[in-house]
Structure formats: structure tokens, C-alpha cells
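Quick one, T. Sequence first:
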Amino acid sequence: MSAPVTIDCQYLGPQFAAAFLLVENGRAAFVENNTAHAHGHLMAALEKSGVPPEAVDYVIITHVHLDHASGSAQLMAACPNATLLAHPRAAPHVIDPSKLVASARKVYGDAEFARLYGDVGPVPEHRVRIMQDNEELTWGSRRLKFLHTRGHANHHFCVLDSGSQGIFTGDAFGLRYPVLQSHGLFTFPSTSPTDFDPAEARAAVRRIAESGARSAYLTHFGQVTELQEAAQQLLMHLDVSDKILQDAVVSDVTDEGLDGWCMAQLREHFTRTLDARGMPMTPQTAEILKLDIDLNGQGIAHTARKRRHPKV
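C-alpha cells:
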């Protein structure tokens, strides 16, 4: 059986966000689809594989964050016989993405939203299949097993593929940018808004590391074979993020100031971690990490505010 094809979606630049193509006996399945702007890259990979769009059986999304799934409607339209596989909490937002779109437009504005994501349309309900935790799907000689993995998002699953002995991890097993691997494996978690939960995130990392997979396929970005080393790094970062969260809850920083405070704590942590690896935080490295540090800080701050003001 062929190994998964990593497709560079060119989202925000090269080797930042991937989709994956599985080919099995003249049939195909996509894992992730990025945005409408990535559609050409996905279809080019499919054409290169020799599989026609009519022979795509599945479009699988690990969760509905827009950099993973906002191209769903366009890809499904191009692949008329495909079924989209989604987490139970993700499926409603694929069928009706209006709330996700409205929320993102409020954050980015219409022009920036269009630049980042393009058109985000609905997928017909009859073409969407919900996959439960531990549910298995036989596809040709492959078995695909779906593992619900909270912590990054409540609507997240990973996909264990018997054919490649790999697991597609979305954002549950962290981020690994090829440009930052010059001093060995360097991976870190995504604690972005709005569902960051340190305990669940650690449980997800352990579940993936203990899944029996030989490789992890990260949406950001590519194949990782050192699963145990990656897990150790991710758990360390999550422990630090949890400590920042706990400190934020009891600090005298205002709710409005928590985002900036958490970002600053994370920047200090990343600077120390990189220095210990012999990788000083150069302006170039800082620019590469800025988006994730900012988003991760916002995610920690969001959870801190929820803990400060629990709903009765």
C-alpha cells in the first residue's frame, strides 16, 4: 500500500499547512482540505495519483477550524461520490457553517476573511457521516479507526490508518514546522481559542503516542516518526501552558489584559526553550513563531477567563 501523499496547501506560505491523500486500489481519500484557496493543490495531487475525482470515496476532516476544513464544500462538489467524515460536534458546522463564518468575519473583517479562506459553503447533510470514538471503517484493505481527542478542540478526532501504520493528528499532536528542525525535532502544542483544556490535551497526546502508530501526520506540518520524543516535548510545553493558565486565573491582571500577559509568558518560555537547544530567538524565528505564540496565548487567556467567571 502506498504511503500518504503530503500536499502543501500553501496556506500563509510554504510548509505551514498540509492535506493528505490516500490511494487504495484506484480509489482515493483526502484527510483535511484547508481552504478554498488550496483546492487547486488538492486536485493537482489527485490528478498526479491517476485517480479521477469520481473515485474519491472520502473527505475526512479532523476538526472544523477553518485552516483544516473550510474548503470542504468546494472539494465535495468536485468529488461527487465522496462522503465527508466528521466528529459528531463538527458535522453540524460543516452542514451549516454560517456561525463559524460569521464569527471569523467578525474577527478578520470581510476582506481579510476572503483573503485567508475564500468561499465557505455548506455540505449537503446526506453526504456527511459522523464517526464515533473508536469507530472503525474498512476501506479496501485498510482499516481507518477514529479516536476522539479533545484538548485543542472539542470537535476533534484523529485517524489511525492501518495501511500506512500512521495516524493523522490534526492539531492534537502539536505543530512541527520543517524550517525549525535544524537542531533536531522541535514540536509544540496548539492551545488556541476556544477549547483549550490542559488535562484533555495531555490525554490526547498520550493516546496518540500509545496508539501503535509508527508515524504521525501533522497538519502543521508533515510526517513525524519520533512519536515518543514528540510526546515528551508536547507534554513539557503543555505543563508550562497549564502553569501559565493557573497563574493567570489568580493574577491581578485584568480580564482585558490577560491576552497580552499570556503571550508574554509564552514568548519567554519559547525563548528559554530555544536557547537551551542552541537556537537563539532570532528575528526570523520570532516571526515564524509569532502567530502561534499569539494564538496560543489567546487560548490560554480565554480558558483563564472562563475559570475566573464560571457559569452558574
